[in-house]
Design goal:
The complex is a heterodimer of chains A (about 300) and B (about 400). With about 300 residues, chain A is mainly alpha-helical. Helix content of chain A is about 70%, strand content about 0%. Chain B has a two-stranded antiparallel sheet. The chains are: A mainly alpha (about 300), B mainly alpha (about 400).
């Protein structure tokens, strides 16, 4: 094959992976909440954005990057827990549009309040690693120290979430209370607490995404930085199946790669249009997602 | 009993009509204005009397709804003569918005699902209107509006087909993706949509010559145009509301409400779930497109930033605050939209905020988002639902 084309394809795949892991993380955080509480959290982009602003406010007190990251995650845990307790708790068992509407309202309020406090001008975050691409034979290569950090962080987070669910007692309880809340309650699982914990966990995963995204993309941190990422994350989660964490991650990564190819070979505007097309087609072919076994709803 | 009531009312009605006509002709400054006034009053009297006949509403529901629509239109148009030109402009946008809200209200009331992309469907109608008018300037306005509606329905079909087969939040998520994608779609087809600057209508909408005589003598042309556009918008909204009220009450509407309340039962009695859901979604998109096309006509131009995701969210807030799933909720939401900008700038001046500051520019989002959450948590059916509850409570306390 033409060496130029080969290098172009390799570059696309690698930068696609970099974007794809962030879509995968958002999709994963959506699936976590959907599986445990049956709520599609439309504020899943805005809540982490808000926590990131809060955490990086410590920059002005001369704290370092890593201290701010820890602060962001703590803010995310708190925000997620408080949201579940005070906003979502009363909505379980209500018609399915009620939580959707409330979370859309929360999205607007968070974005507006963030813009009111910190203004909507982009704020550039410090980065622990250089974003300058490595050179390969005198040409810039697709990877930089920062993108490697990004991919590695995403993989570690995914692995941690998987390990939590698979190997710990807490994970077993989380799965049990999502699958059969009544039975779990009878067996002594404190379902209410675990639902709160699920939201905290999901928001924390979202916060890590938001930190990566607002440092990686040249846009910086803005109140609306997560809007587009959320849309891609939802598309990935819907393609993979809202029930399947693995499906969400795989679909997210693949979507990232496809998007990069579209950007490179078609143009920037076509990316979301083609993503929307993929969503439409995949929902037509496999309505409950590519990675889930479809289940018949019984009367 | 009914016949007697009608027989007694007819001569009274004729007498009132004649009296009103004479008073109007004497009081008005020009003959045409007098005729207009007397027609307005007579229409109101006739509709009012027709509706007050006992049993009429139950026997002739369609005629009764038509009479109610006529009465509302009559009063609204009569009032527009007394409003300032800026108030009329606000009313016109409110009327266009209420059509969009009606579509969303129908979708939720009918299928229990929700769309976050109605702003984008509005955009489809708005741009279809502008593009068609730029290529075929001679097409009558009504026909162009219908073409815009057809475009909205077609896009609704394309998106609704997969999403409506599913339970859960898929329709909401997919329409959200469409709303986010819409501005990119517009710039992809910039040779058609005019890119960032949008499109202008080739000829500004002006009142036909025969209508000019009905306006006050010496009315400035700007006011005349605003008044004309406002009345057109109000009439279109009236027609849209009339059709929707009939659809709500029809067999289709009833089977849709059954799906919302219990889809399993609906399937058992032979209602086709996917087909009904798709139809509901198409109707909602078509209504959104009509509202958007009307907004293009009112603004005389269309620009892409108007139809961003924020508009879809505003639409959702308005209908939730008004009362989702109800017809009157759409009307209330339209009125709120018409005057929200004025109210928010009033709040800004009253609280002494810096109008260019961060907080003042975000006040819209904070207020609407907060109201959205509070309404959903404490009064899920909005102002309409709260009013109905109050009414039932009052009737229980003071039985007739």
């Amino acid at each position: 094959m033409d060496p130029f084309l080969t290098s172009r394809i390799v570059t696309d795949v690698l930068s696609g992976l970099t974007n794809g892991v962030t879509y995968g993380l958002v999709a994963l955080s959506l699936v976590l909440i959907w599986r445990s509480t049956g709520v599609l959290n439309f504020a899943q982009g805005a809540m982490p954005m808000f926590a990131t602003y809060l955490g990086f406010a410590f920059l002005s007190y001369h704290f370092g990057y890593w201290a701010c990251v820890v602060a962001c995650v703590i803010a995310g845990l708190l925000l997620g827990g408080l949201t579940e307790r005070f906003l979502v708790r009363g909505l379980y068992g209500k018609p399915e549009i009620n939580p959707i509407v409330v979370m859309v309202g929360f999205l607007i309020v968070l974005e507006a309040v963030a813009a009111a406090i910190w203004s909507s001008t982009p704020r550039s975050l410090p980065s622990p690693f250089s974003a300058i691409h490595w050179q390969l034979a005198g040409k810039p290569f697709a990877l930089s120290p920062f993108t490697v950090y990004e991919i590695a962080t995403a993989l570690v987070v995914m692995a941690l979430v998987a390990a939590l669910f698979r190997f710990t007692k807490l994970g077993l309880q989380l799965r049990a209370s999502a699958l059969a809340p009544e039975v779990s309650r009878l067996l002594g699982v404190r379902v209410g607490r675990l639902l709160t914990l699920g939201w905290m966990l999901s928001t924390a995963v979202g916060v890590i995404t938001a930190i990566l995204v607002s440092a990686n993309f040249f846009s910086g941190l803005t109140p609306t930085v997560m809007d587009g990422i959320f849309a891609y994350g939802f598309i990935a989660a819907a393609i993979g199946g809202l029930e399947s964490p693995v499906g969400a991650i795989v679909a997210g990564v693949l979507l990232g790669v496809v998007n990069q190819f579209v950007t490179d070979f078609v143009n920037q505007n076509a990316v979301i249009i083609i993503a929307l097309g993929i969503l439409v087609v995949s929902l037509m072919v496999r309505p409950s997602g590519v990675f889930t076994k479809s289940s018949q709803r019984r009367v | 009993m009914k016949l007697i009531a009608v027989r007694r009312r007819v001569p009274i009605a004729i007498a009132i009509a004649v009296a009103v006509t004479i008073i109007a002709l004497v009081a008005a400054s020009t003959t045409r204005e007098g005729i207009a006034l007397s027609i307005a009053f007579d229409l109101a009297v006739a509709c009012g009397i027709a509706m007050s006949v006992p049993g009429f509403k139950a026997d002739h529901p369609v005629v009764s709804r038509a009479a109610l629509t006529l009465l509302a239109l009559d009063v609204a148009i009569f009032l527009t003569f007394f409003f300032s030109s800026s108030t009329n402009f606000n009313l016109a946008t409110g009327a266009a918005m209420s059509i969009v809200l009606l579509g969303l209200s129908f979708l939720t009331g009918a299928s229990g699902q929700i769309s976050l992309g109605n702003g984008a469907f509005m955009g489809v109608g708005a741009f279809a209107m502008a593009i068609w008018a730029n290529h075929h300037a001679t097409t009558p306005i009504v026909l162009t509006l219908l073409i815009a509606v057809a475009c909205g329905a077609l896009v609704g079909l394309l998106l609704g087909l997969p999403a409506t087969r599913l339970r859960g939040p898929y329709l909401a998520g997919m329409t959200l993706a469409f709303a986010v994608a819409f501005t990119f779609i517009l710039s992809s087809f910039s040779s058609w949509t005019g890119g960032d600057s949008g499109l202008q209508l080739p000829t500004a909408a002006t009142a036909p010559r025969w209508l000019d005589g009905f306006f006050h003598a010496g009315t400035p042309p700007l006011t005349t145009t605003t008044l004309y556009i406002t009345d057109v918008a109000i009439i279109v909204a009236g027609v849209a509301f009339f059709f929707m009220a009939n659809l709500f009450a029809s067999r289709t509407g009833r089977s849709m409400r059954l799906i919302r309340d219990n889809d399993v039962a609906a399937e058992l009695v032979g209602v086709s779930l996917p087909r009904t859901r798709v139809v509901a979604f198409i109707v909602s998109s078509a209504y959104a497109a009509l509202g958007g096309a009307l907004l293009t006509l009112i603004d005389n131009s269309v620009s892409p930033p108007t139809y961003s995701f924020a508009l879809s969210v505003t639409i959702l807030s308005l209908i939730v605050i008004g009362g989702i799933g109800t017809i009157s909720g759409a009307l209330i939401g339209g009125v709120i939209y018409a005057f929200s900008t004025n109210v928010i700038s009033w709040i800004t001046t009253q609280t002494g905020l810096n109008p260019q500051g961060n907080l003042a520019s975000q006040l819209n989002g904070i207020i609407f988002g907060g109201l959205l959450i509070l309404t959903m948590l404490f009064a899920p059916f909005g102002i309409t639902g709260a009013a109905r509850q109050l009414w039932h409570r009052l009737r229980a306390r003071f039985p007739r």
